[in-house]
Design a protein that fits this description.
The protein is about 30% helix and about 15% strand. It contains 10 helices and 14 strands. The strands form 2 sheets. Strands 1, 2, 3, 4, 5, 6, 7, 10, 11, 12, 13 and 14 form a 12-stranded mixed sheet that branches. Helix 6 (about 255-270) links the parallel strand 12 (about 245) and strand 13. Helix 3 runs parallel beside helix 7 (about 280-295) and helix 4 (about 200-210) packs across helix 9 (about 330-350).
């Protein structure tokens, strides 16, 4: 789980976007009518990359760049860095070097028409050992926001509470808000929801295509699985499943917080969702995508989220949580690899049937 925050670059990028927007509106030398917009078929979104986009040790982006042959760098208006690549088949790769601001920049650039584009948000995550193993890959039906909540230090919580994290507007953990106005000006309870629904039919369709994908494993990861006695799914070799993503800016770890995450996802999805993956940016990205969809820049029904487990979100039985915190080790490379292995057949299917899928979204429902 990795996210980078570059405040200075962020502010510079926002300023550049504002300036280019003003220049675009005032310029008469290149009328908007003359711009021929490219229409990406599929956009793979990665959160970060180490070093170069290809040819060195991979991050979340590199396997997609190399295996999908995203050889052409495409400029995005207002963004000084290379964040976008594409191949000749209409597959694009976007690496969020400036976080969700890059999503906004791409959507606002008139050189791109995103109304029929399919999105696959990818990346590595902490995985719940009750549900899956390191190297496993999950298609989400919901992205759940774990940021906005009430918090009491666990050492100060009332007797009988499992932890000190609970919903704003609620009076104890594991309960939904009872009064919308506890949040301030909010009056509609639905506005308080922390579950951002994706297109479940599309997610199920993608899972059906990728569930038999050949995933990689690692001898060291396989050796470590033996420590997870009592967690049969954690002891399995990597596999593809369906399950939800929880995004939270706090890099949390441990059995108590894992229990909170399981219940938080179940709470906001009304018992329909299953917590599998946790990371630091999914919630922010989906908030931005929902806003852009509401403004008419893209189709939210075409968004998919595919996360892979680089490490467990709690230590194995008998181990110290502080010592296992952030121990992603060899799991990162396997997670990078399997993320692309699971997503590749979905991209291939979209391209093979583009005559249908350009206007009609595939679904298993």
């Amino acid at each position: 789980m990795k996210i980078s925050t570059r405040s200075a670059t962020f502010l510079a990028l926002v300023s550049a976007l504002a300036l280019t927007a003003c220049a675009s509106s005032e310029s008469t030398s290149t009328p908007a009518a003359r711009i021929v917009a490219s229409a990406p078929k599929v956009i793979v979104v990665a959160g970060w990359e180490n070093g170069a986009d290809s040819g060195d040790a991979p991050g979340e982006y590199q396997d997609w760049v190399e295996r999908e042959h995203l050889d052409e760098v495409v400029p995005v208006r207002g963004v000084p860095d290379a964040i976008l690549r594409r191949n000749k088949e209409g597959v694009y790769g976007l690496v969020l070097r400036h976080g969700a601001t890059d999503l906004m920049a791409l959507a606002l650039d008139p050189h791109f028409d995103l109304h029929h584009s399919y999105w696959i948000f990818t990346g590595i995550s902490g995985v719940d050992p009750s549900v899956a193993s390191v190297g496993s890959v999950a298609w989400a039906r919901w992205v759940v926001d774990g940021d906005a909540l009430r918090e009491i230090d666990d050492r100060d919580i009332p007797k009988g509470w499992p932890y000190g994290l609970y919903a704003i507007g609620a009076d104890k953990p594991d309960t939904l808000p009872s009064d919308a106005n506890h949040y301030g000006s909010v009056t509609d309870m639905d506005e308080l929801s922390k579950a951002y629904p994706l297109n479940a039919g599309l997610a199920q369709w993608a899972y059906a295509i990728s569930r038999t994908a050949s995933l990689s494993d690692d001898p060291e990861i396989a050796r470590r699985r033996a420590a997870w006695k009592g967690f049969p799914n954690a002891q399995r070799p990597p596999f593809v499943l369906m399950g939800e993503t929880l995004g939270a800016l706090r890099y949390w770890h441990g059995q108590s917080r894992n229990r909170w995450a399981e219940r938080w996802v179940s709470l906001w999805t009304h018992g329909k969702g299953v917590f599998v993956m946790t990371n630091e940016e999914s919630q922010t990205n989906q908030i931005e995508m929902r806003l852009l969809a509401d403004r008419g820049y893209l189709d939210a029904r075409r968004i998919m989220v595919l996360r892979s487990g680089s490490n467990f979100d709690m230590p194995p039985p008998g181990k110290n949580a502080a010592k296992s915190m952030g121990d992603e080790g060899p799991g990162q490379t396997v997670a990078f690899d399997n993320n692309e292995r699971a997503g590749a057949p979905v991209i291939a299917a979209l391209l093979a049937h583009w005559a249908d899928y350009e206007d009609h979204i595939p679904s298993s429902e």
